[in-house]
Design a protein that fits this description.
mainly alpha, 2 domains, three-stranded antiparallel β-sheet, 3 strands, 66% helix
Amino acid sequence: MIKQLLLNITLTLVWVMLTGEFRFGNFVFGFVLSYGILWLVQKNEDGKRYFTRVPAVFSFIFFFLYEIIKANLQVAYDVITPRFFMRPGIVKYPLDAKTDLEITFLTNFISLTPGTLILDVSDDKKVVYIHVMYLDDKETFIRQLKEGLEKRLLDILR
């Protein structure tokens, strides 16, 4: 997979140098073009993993940016209005992530989202305790986190 990524970046840089336009849009176009070329010429099973992971990374980036913007707007609205809409609570969240790397990434991304904070990871690494600023329903929160953030993150890491 690293081999395909380096080849993709190399072809992207060749495209940028050939066109002579050192702009972000041209770099993105070169990356997409070289990605498509590599996808057409890939032969082995190991190469297929790269071509499923790159879209998963972009999907995760856009999903996480959407979640951050949504949470920031919710917190900002609560701050500027005279009435508080907070419903704080602590959620016991069962983990699908198994390795230390997966748990670390997941807990960091949860903590980066405004309104959530990781309190503790259980000793057996099966449960994470999360403080949530706006908690309507624990089951809904767990389902949204599992189907959204954790699933997308594990698609990238596994």
